[in-house]
Amino acid sequence: MAPVLLKSQSKTLVIGSTGGNMITTGMASALMNHLWFGKSLKDAINTPVVYVDSENAVKFEPNFEKDVIEALKKKGHNHQPATRFYNVVNTVEKEDSCISAWSDERKKGKAAGY
Question: How far apart are CA 44 and CA 33, in angstroms?
Answer without folding.
Answer: 5
